[in-house]
Amino acid sequence: MTAPAIPAPATGRLGNGQLRRQVAEWLAARPGPHTVGEIAKDLGRSAGAVGNALTTLADRAEASRIAGKPLRYEANSATAAAAAAITPKAPSAPKAPAPPKAAPAAPTPAASPAPPATPAASPAAPKAPAPAPKATRGPVTRPGGQVYRPRVLAGMADVEALRTLRAEGVPSLLAGPPGTGKTSLVEAAFPDLITVAGDGDTTVGDFVGEYTQRPDGTYEFIYGPLIRAMQEGRVLFIDDATLISPAVLAVCYPAMDGRREVTVKAHKGETITAADGFYVVAGHNPGVHGAVLTEALSSRFTFQFEVATDYDLARSLGIDSRAITAARNLATRQANGETGWAPQLRELLAFAKITKIFGLDTALANLAGVAPAEDRDVVAETLAKTFGKTVRPLALGRQI
Ligand SMILES: Nc1ncnc2c1ncn2[C@@H]1O[C@H](COP(=O)(O)OP(=O)(O)OP(=O)(O)O)[C@@H](O)[C@H]1O
Ligand SMILES: [Mg+2]
Known about the structure:
36% of the residues lie in helices and 14% in strands. The chain has 400 residues and is of the alpha/beta class. The longest helix has 15 residues, at 321-335. The termini are far apart. Residues 1-11 and 91-133 have low confidence and may be disordered.
């Protein structure tokens, strides 16, 4: 991370787990749901860092996440114990909320299924290079309430890998065809996300903001997603980044480079400095028409990885194994250049849903029908062979 943020009475960097302890204590002492901003403000920490701590607590079931517009969190029966399980750091905590309260809180050791963490009494620890905690194993709930099942990335859960990259300030770029799980991963990793959905018409104003007219006819400048993410220490997700004109995308680069600043030319040349926690992650589909992965973009997003459909995950999500066999078969033929399309996780999930609603025959016909026109015959034939049924792309029939 860099720059100490703008206003906040922030009290320097905390050791690994210490902010999580403070957040857990704070929540446990204040029943009822609270927004990330509310907690961050009271603790004098950036919303991004507090959001990360809350995410980890919720992923470990040590706090409850309440889906909805402003995402909110509340303490659950495990929150107080989670706070107590993290050894407080020697120097006096800046603004620790109320003492332990309830719970027969054992001094330190004992009952914590949590990860090993550092031994107990740390001497004058010289500030370890501490990556983010890597506890996530089971499913993670996305802000919209959907369940995300983490996959392995860099030897750990993908959501933890992304959070570690954020903590270390390394921008990442996810590449993959539609429906493989790029957005889901980024949303699962960062509940405090702000998204810019890129296309060829995306403008600089879509990033930095623009003047809009008030009802009284006067104008005010409304900050865009890049500026809000910078000011609030949040994550900016640039989806379909390679469809955006390189000159437009370049407006983000100064925020990602060492100075973490941008100048908003359209608003009196104002300079915005990124708060702690600000991070940029981008997604793109290299195969789509018009995608341009410029050297400038590629060199900024130093951590790049591919997101392909995980067929084992599809199976564990309850998708008919014959559909998975057909999808794998088509994916192999696509790799060999024999066909141009294979169903990804999104289509497989839709297939399962339509099977539930209308039955297998309709779901098969629909799956064949969603394939691009030039690949439809191959898809229908593969499905027919795998399921031992005639498959024709779905179409309206005769009058009833
Ligand atoms: N790891 C996962 N666990 C559970 N569901 C997943 C997972 N990954 C993806 N999905 C589901 O797969 C579907 C497609 O995922 P998603 O929308 O993230 O794909 P995408 O790669 O962002 O697609 P696009 O490029 O079209 O934006 C969604 O319904 C999502 O909920
Ligand atoms: Mg997406």
